[in-house]
Design a protein that fits this description.
35% helix, 2-oxoacid dehydrogenase acyltransferase catalytic domain-containing protein, acyltransferase activity, 2-oxoacid_DH_actylTfrase, Chloramphenicol Acetyltransferase, 26% strand, CAT-like_dom_sf
C-alpha cells in the first residue's frame, strides 16, 4: 500500500537497500555532527532587513537555509519505514514551542509546510503565521487534540492504541490526517535553543514517525576561530546535528553541510525564490 507522505524508492542499489534491515531503528543509525558558524554576516543581514522594514531573526534565517538545502539536496528528505527507503512529497519542518516562556508554560509543537521554492520573506510569513496560530491563547492544534483524546483513555488502552498506531505506520495504514498533524513525521525537527540562551545539544531521533534529521541551534557566544591562518575571537553559534545515516551516504551529507555553510556565509542568496526543487530520481 502506498503512503500519503512519500514514495518508495525502488531503484537503489542492493547495498543501500539492505542497510535498513541491518540497522532497524533510528537509534541504531544515529550520527552526530557539530557545525560552528561565525554570525557577523548573519547579524549584518538581519540588521539590513530590519532597516528595510522586514523583521526576521535567527529562527527565520536558519529555517530558510534548511528549506533551501532540502530543496536542492533531495536525499536529505528521505525516510526509513519498515526497513524500506522512501522520499517525501514535500518539505516539512517541526518545532516544539512554549506558549509562554515560563517553567510551567504549556508546550506544544508546530509544523511548517514548504514547497522549497520560497524566498526568505515568504519563509518569514509562513513561520510567523504558524507560530502565531500555535501560541494563540486557549488554542489547541491537531497534535494537542489527538494527544488529549488518547490520554483520556485508561493506561492499558493508551498502550494498545499507541502500539496500533505504530503498527499502522509501519504498514502504510496510518491515516493522512494523523501523518500531517504528527510532528514526528517531518523532514527535519528543529530546536531553537538560542531563544532560551542555551548551548546546542545533540537531540536523539525518534523511532516513531519518519524524522531523519534533528537540528539544535545554540546561543551566540564568542569563540576562537581560524581565519587566514590566524586565530581570532568572533561571535559564533554552534549547531548540533543528529542524522539517520541510512538515508544517504557520508559524501552526500558532507556536500550538504558545505551548502548550509554557503548560505549562512551569504544569506543574501536567500532573497530570491528558487527556480525549481530537485527531484530524488531513484
Amino acid at each position: 500500500m502506498r503512503r500519503s507522505d512519500g514514495r518508495l524508492l525502488k531503484s537503489l542499489s542492493p547495498f543501500v537497500r539492505i542497510i535498513p534491515h541491518i540497522m532497524t531503528k533510528r537509534n541504531d543509525a544515529q550520527n552526530f555532527y557539530k557545525q560552528v558558524v561565525a554570525v557577523d554576516k548573519i547579524d549584518q543581514y538581519i540588521k539590513e532587513k530590519k532597516d528595510q522594514g522586514i523583521r526576521l531573526n535567527y529562527l527565520h534565517l536558519f529555517i530558510a537555509v534548511y528549506v533551501r538545502v532540502l530543496a536542492q539536496r533531495p536525499q536529505l528528505n528521505r525516510f526509513i519505514m519498515n526497513n524500506k527507503i522512501y522520499t517525501r512529497y514535500d518539505i516539512r519542518i517541526s518545532m516544539a514551542i512554549k506558549r509562554l516562556l515560563k517553567d510551567d508554560g504549556e508546550e506544544t509543537t508546530v509544523k511548517f509546510l514548504f514547497s522549497g521554492l520560497e524566498s526568505i520573506e515568504e519563509i518569514v510569513k509562513i513561520v510567523d503565521q504558524t507560530i502565531e496560530e500555535g501560541c494563540a491563547a486557549g488554542a489547541a492544534n491537531e497534535v494537542d487534540t489527538i494527544a488529549q483524546r488518547i490520554m483520556a483513555l485508561p493506561n492499558s488502552q493508551v498502550k494498545l492504541l499507541v502500539g496500533t498506531l505504530k503498527w499502522m505506520d509501519r504498514h502504510n495504514l496510518l491515516p493522512k490526517k494523523i501523518i500531517e498533524a504528527s510532528p514526528f513525521h517531518t523532514s527535519l525537527f528543529f530546536t531553537y535553543l538560542k531563544s532560551i540562551n542555551l548551548d546546542f545539544i545533540y537531540h536523539h531521533l525518534y523511532d516513531f514517525g519518519t524524522t531523519g534529521i534533528f537540528v539544535a541551534l545554540g546561543k551566540s557566544k564568542k569563540l576562537p576561530v581560524v581565519e587566514e591562518d590566524q586565530v581570532v575571537v568572533k561571535k559564533c553559534c554552534e549547531i548540533g546535528y543528529v542524522l539517520d545515516e541510512r538515508i544517504c551516504d557520508g559524501l552526500y551529507y558532507s556536500n550538504s553541510f558545505k551548502l548550509v555553510k554557503k548560505y549562512l556565509a551569504n544569506p543574501y542568496l536567500l532573497d530570491e525564490r528558487l527556480e525549481k526543487v530537485e527531484e530524488d530520481v531513484n
